[in-house]
Every structure is written in structure tokens, then in C-alpha cells.
Amino acid sequence: MHPIRRHLLAAASASLLLPPLLSSCAQPRPRDVYSPIVGQDGKDAMWVPTPDAVVERMLDMAEVKRGDRVVDLGSGDGTIVIAAARRGARARGIEYDANLVALSRRNARQAGVQADFVQGDIFQSDFSDADVVTLYLMPEMNERLLPTLLDMKPGTRVASHQFGIGHWPPDRTDEVAGRFAHLWIVPAKVGGTWTARVDGEPPLQVELRQNFQKLEGDALVAGERFELALPRLRGPAIRFDVRGGPAGTMRFEGTADNGGRINGTVLTAGAHPRPFTATRA
Questions:
Q1: CATH superfamily, region 52-185
Q2: Which residues partner with 250 through β-bridges?
Q3: Are 226 and 206 in contact (CB under 8 A)?
């Protein structure tokens, strides 16, 4: 073959190969997208997602609404946080696995919601500002969190998928598609001896005995002790009846804080409501 013809054929072959080579250089292969595996090991527990129906029931039970601060502990792929954000909540997830945090952020962007995901240890994180706390953790982890949860502001709602929180009885449990959703309302710390002052009445000594949200006690009226009737504690809201004494049955309804103070009103038969204040010794 003539040298010039051989040169032209080589050049033509190169021109056919060059566009695909340039194309492959201009379009790098996409990186693999991280996808968690159900049952994969984590720091303290394996990852298992919460079904959507259970997520929605948990948020319904906790009455999540616009503006609520919702924190999901061990937030995994971000499902609960994203669902709360769709309701207008200021939602935050705390997750130890950095890959899951990155996945959650991507899922939130794809869902078109504003949500915050933090990489961290739930046992070292501060979530005391939350109005609602959600969980899907192993029972022993829930139990470790119990003191922290009980120290949160009275009225904080806590919702858990499947598992309880130590010996703290839930305020409500629903079954959803074979799974359980539990709700707790953080109670005010009201145990102890109180002095209640009512306009027009001598000071009244009340002894309150508390076991989580369960309440009982008695009152000292004119030197005689009477067991409290119909005691109730839900978050910061407290109510009990004192029966006996010249005033007859007195119904106390008020709001308690963790600082040793209760404010509210007293109702007696045939009288207008009167304010009362109680302080703990």
C-alpha cells in the first residue's frame, strides 16, 4: 500500500475513535448513591425504617402542628423528620451515621421541605428545646434516655415506635398494621409537701405523692387528714379535690412548673372560682 494512502486510512480511523473517547472523558461515571440496608449495624442499634402509617400515627398522637419543635432521636433516613416538616414543624434529626445524615439531607431536598439533620450522639446532644421527641430505638436505649426525657419541660410530647421507655407507662398506645405507637406527656415534678393559699381561707397543707404521671396524696384540713379525690396530672396541668372541712369539697385546678409552684383556681359549691397559689416546702 502506498505510504500516503496508509497515512490517510490511519487518520480516518483515529477520527472515528476520537469522539467516543472525548465523550467518555467529558461525562464521568456517576458516583454510587448510598442506600442503607435494613438491619445494618449502627453505633447502638441496627437500622430499621418506620412504616409511613406508623409515622403519621405517631405525629397525630403527639398533635404535631405548625411551629412545633420536633426532634427525632436516631433519625436514620429522615422519614419522621421529613413527615413532621411537611406539617410545618421545625424538625430536626440527630443521627450518628454520617452516611444516613447525608441521605436524610438529600431526601429532604427531594421532598421540598426545610429540615435540619445533625450528625451526633443522641446521649451527648442537647434537645431540651423540643416540643415533641420521637424515637424508634432499642428498649435499653429508651431506658437510658428516661432521666433526660423526664427532665424536659412539662407537657413535652414523646412518641415511640414499638418500644416502651423503662417503667414509664404510656399515656396512650395505638396499634397500626401490627406495630405499636406509644405516647407520653412529660409530667411536672409535683411530689412533696405543698402549702396552698386561697383567698379567704387559712393556708392548706397538701402532700402529693407522684409516680410518673400517676398522682395521689392527702390534705390536712382543720387538723384532720383527708385523702385527695380524683387526682390527675397531665403535663403541667394538675387537678385534685379536697373533701372535708367547713368549705365542703374544694376542687383545685392549676398549672405546675418544676420550680415548686402551682397557680390556678379553686371551685366550691355555690361560690365563684377563686385564685390559689401553692408552693413546695
A1: Vaccinia Virus protein VP39 (3.40.50.150)
A2: 242, 268
A3: no
182: cell is 406509644
pTM of the model: 0.84
Provide the residue-wise pLDDT of the chain in tens; the chain has 281 residues: 434 333 333 343 334 333 443 344 444 444 567 777 665 566 666 668 899 999 999 999 999 999 999 999 999 999 999 999 999 999 999 999 999 999 999 999 999 999 999 999 999 999 999 999 999 999 999 999 999 999 999 999 999 999 999 999 999 999 999 999 999 999 999 999 999 999 888 899 999 999 999 999 999 988 899 999 999 999 999 999 998 777 789 999 999 999 999 999 999 988 899 999 999 99
Question: In Å, how far are 8, 37, 67, 117, 160 from 173, measured between CA atoms?
Answer: 82, 29, 25, 28, 10
CATH number of 192-280: 2.40.128.120
What contacts 24+ positions apart, CB below 8 Å, involve 107-113?
A: 107/77, 107/78, 107/79, 107/82, 108/78, 108/81, 108/82, 111/82, 111/85, 111/86, 113/82, 113/85, 113/86
- Any idea where the domains of the chain sit in the sequence? 52-185, 192-280
Other Cβ atoms less than 10 A from the Cβ of 47: the count is 18
Instruction: Cell 424515637: give the residue.
Output: 135
What cell does 63 get?
A: 398533635
